[in-house]
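Lab notebook page, bench 4
Experiment: in silico fold of construct C2
Operator: M.H.
Input chain length: 685 residues
Purpose: comparison with the prior construct
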Amino acid sequence: MKKLGILLVVCVGIFFCLISYELHAKAATYQTVLGVDKEARGKYTTTKQNFTIEDYWKTKTVKAKLVYRVTQLSEQEVSTITFSVNDVPFYSFRPAKGETGVQEITVDVPADKLKKGSNVFAVEGFIYTTLPDNQCTIDDTPANWLHIDKASSILVDYDELPFKNTIADFNDRFTGIDTVKNEQSGVFMSDKTSDAEMTSSLQMVTAFAHENKLDDKQIALGAYGDTAKRNDKRYQLVVANFKNLPAALKNGIDTEKLNQQAVIKLQNVAGKRVLIVTSKDDALLKVAAKLISNQSLTSQLALDEKWVKADEKVETPKTKVDKEIKLTTEGDKVKGIGHVEQDYFIKVPSNRSISDGTKVNLKYRYSSNLDFEHSLVTVLINGKPIGSQKLTAKKANDDSFTINVPKDMNIVGNFNVTVAFDLILTDNYCGFMNDSEIPWGFVTNESTFDLHTEEQKNFLFNNYPYPMIQDEAFNEAVVVLPDNPDASILTSLENVFNLFGQFVDGNYGSLEAVSSSHFKAANESQNIIAFGGLNDNTVIKQANDKLYFKYNQAGTYFLSNEKMKIDPTYGKRIGSVQLIPSIFNKEKAILAVTGPTSQTTALGSTLLGSSEMLSKTYGDGAIIDADDTIHAYRFKKVASVDNETSFATKLADNKGTLAFAAVTVMILILLATATVLLLRKYRKK
């Protein structure tokens, strides 16, 4: 009896330890590093760095570390560096005069100035120098500089709040920056990998990848049985037809309701948060996956179980590409002496170019202590000016400027809009200035970019991911896979669909996945994404003669072509991505992510696995080897239609030639007429 009592006490103790672990916050830190060196030139400069505080963090401290070098000519008595967060200054210091080496300073950021979500840390430098004869320098000189090292960082020390045991909280944490950075989340399908499970998994990976804020990390995709990949994930999303669902995950699921509905259910399995998406009906499974891919709906699910019916309204609205875009939601202030800038990123599908009617509608105001003869505002696109307007004392509190974007700038895909103020003071100045005296400009939240585009329909990686994705939605896309995809093929999918997530917004559009043996006639009218090699993917086998990098008959290596001589031993070790017109429908395309083995297929997929690699992949066919050596080419002729242009059309396109031809014809007619008349005359004689 005594032993039983001791055992009971131990069990209760363990239970309360587990409860305590669950209820108490988990301590952690997250560091945001500047990542690139920044050069701040001029007397007054501002350098900004964004950092995030997640909703499920309880922030304890935030430390800002500045690693910098400053001109050795700085005047210590007046030069200052000021830190601010969310436009609120909180710390200033004077850089030591004559110091030429790297310096470092770490300060606490006031917690009451922080907010959930995105925060902005700014370094404002007032770097004043004197001439050798101690005269005042009025204008900016090359001597006015502040170098901010890439090692500068923001360190957030926080407690992770207790898990709320809701689908919405799971959704937040699944793509949280700490979760993704530590590779703690993943989507897993059953080991049997049915077409419906694959379709659902790819749909959800794309949606979660869209929410991922980190460029260098991905949302994992794999099979549930791949324990090496799955076991270390704190947040797991498991999608499976109920018959394929692992037995350990079936507990507590109402099997009767599964005949008519799908369920999204949250479970705690061995300390891991597991969100299960399952049904006995494949069509319902896809509906549930679409719901998870609708971030607006998922964020509302403050419950641990959601049943989904076939008629559930889960689709997001179609994205409108041509629209009026707000440049800023709250307004942006810039300040400084001379040239100061504010940048805005405009997201446009990669196959769309700016067309007529696109314009910038700028609403702004500025300080009144300016030399209005020389102060102005300029709008730039990708660093190229498109128009300027002088600032005036009369309109300082309410000014506006509308400028059309010239079509001849040939802007395709994403671009930057820069609003640049040249703020020139009326009087010469020397030494330190009060903050209130420093000139400023403010871009209001009424400023808009009126976007109009036209579509580029060439099948090129320059326009990727078109045509698989069009206007931020899957465009009648079908993924064709080997019948038994291994871990390397799933890694290929992980790479490609994580990058797709950067281009897809919402769940609108058509996406389907089928195994090679299930590829049917109906799929031939779709845009095809084929993974694998000649021997395990029917599409690649049928399209081999049309591939730019073809396989040998056995499918064991790539052959040489008109662009590149390939040794067979090298052809065995490379992966490839190729974008060709579909062999089934010339209006559609085939994207082949391919290699002689599943491992080389995964190697090829890295070309389409990140924005950095995509920038190195151009034309319509590319290969990569294990040393990351990339060979990319354009095989399709630039203007094949022109080769068939008739002689008459060429004449019509050249007005000078056409005029010369007309005169020649007239002369020939006159000569012929004269000859006929002369012949008649001499016949009569």
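Observations: The first helix runs from residue 2 to 23. The domain at 461-633 is CATH 3.30.379 (Chitobiase; domain 2).
Next step: discuss at group meeting.
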